[in-house]
Amino acid sequence: MAPGRGDARRMPGAAGTCAAAQAALCKATAGHRLLVLQLGGSADSPRLREERRRRSAEARDLSTGLQHTLLAGLRQASASPEERRELERLWVLFLSALELFLQDLRQAHHLCQLFSVQGGGTTLLRTGLGSQGLPSRKGSRRGGGPAQPPATPRLEEEIEQVRATLVEMESRANILPWTVEATQPAGTGGTAAPAAGAAREGSDAGHCCRVL
Q1: Against a cut of 0.90, is the pTM above it?
Q2: Rounded-to-integer distance, Cα 49 and Cα 34, Å
């Protein structure tokens, strides 16, 4: 869940900087998720896929910056206990946001392997088997003609980058995620990424958890 903009302004030092970056990351990953949900559908197009790549790059750039800021803040010997607890809380939220982002990237990779885009239309890739177990002659949903498997090396690189960031964060910060306690009841919107409406408005939700 993204910290609210008011919360980010009230937090001092590194915690405030990280809270603002976390809110921006959640907004970017929520926008990316909306695009992933449209892959393979009637709205799928080369333009949509290019926009997905742009949103993914934005989210990955934000996560890299937040990773460095969080790690630097957690290593500050001068940080107060309150600021330290807040940084640990943000670290857990950051990992949750990255895990959801990684799931979306894997889903995008799967859908791009199933569907290619030809001439503005979405084409279902040839599987070799029809509904009766015989070779299929109709490999496309729209656009006609045989479809070729799409090239997905860039998506694989995106997945690997986010996965490596997760591994590094888990190994370089000695924080136990289960020491963070939820402070909002279930069903009140306490997720690592805001809903579509919240993403467009920057998410004004408050804290969803605290460090025990």
Answers
A1: no
A2: 12
